[in-house]
Design a protein that fits this description.
The chain is of the alpha+beta class. It is 27% helix and 36% strand. Strands 1-2-3-4 form a four-stranded mixed β-sheet. It has a three-stranded antiparallel β-sheet with strand order 7-8-9, covered by helices on one side.
């Protein structure tokens, strides 16, 4: 299991990094197939200072992704809270895997990449007036590869609930195609099936 701890708007001391690594390295006892754990520690400027120390964790495990985010006035407390949250998610996910009847498919795992797109920062106002520049195009700020195991649409819906995101890309075990499941505004799910 690879564990990556990064800091954002914070000096990442050795003690803080060691604490996060020690606390989150215990996740492997709940689930054997954890590939990577990304931990981001940050200080955010918010009105409520009791929620300014934020710990975000992303766990890449056996084709599934689990995320947790907690904030408090103490970074160590935020790490403890998010660790507990991720442990609960892993236990719940492991129980669902045990309860669900195994569905087999002859399709091998496929690789996919995920990319995050961001707009570059705005130039200072004085520079804008002197040298007008065209708006910057979005750029890819993070890219990675991860395996996708084939799953059925109902399994993808469960993953989407676990991730608490707006959409989820998966390999559909019925059609052997890459599909996207998304959360609709009415609370139901939509499925996008590309036609080649």
């Amino acid at each position: 299991m690879q564990l990556v701890v990064t800091g954002k708007n914070i000096h990442l001391s050795g003690a803080l990094k060691d604490y996060a690594e020690k606390k989150l390295s215990t996740l492997k006892k709940y689930f054997d197939h954890i590939i990577e754990v990304d931990v981001t520690l940050s200080v955010e400027e918010v009105k409520d200072q009791t929620r300014s120390r934020v710990c975000e964790v992303t766990v890449w495990a056996n084709g599934s992704v689990l995320r947790g985010k907690k904030a408090s006035e103490d970074m160590y407390a935020s790490i403890d809270m998010v660790s507990d949250k991720i442990e609960r998610q892993l236990k719940k996910y492991k129980e669902k895997l045990k309860e669900r009847p195994r569905r087999f498919t002859d399709r091998q795992e496929i690789s996919a990449s995920h990319k995050v797109i961001s707009f570059s920062e705005e130039p200072e106002a004085s520079q804008k007036e002197l040298h007008p520049t065209p708006p910057a195009a979005p750029k890819i700020i993070r890219s990675g590869m991860f395996g996708i195991k084939p799953m059925f649409a109902d399994e993808a819906a469960e993953q989407l609930k676990l991730l608490n995101q707006g959409f989820y890309v998966f390999s559909n075990a019925e059609t052997n195609q890459v599909n996207v499941i998304y959360k609709r505004s009415d609370g139901n799910f939509g499925l996008i099936e590309p036609e080649f």
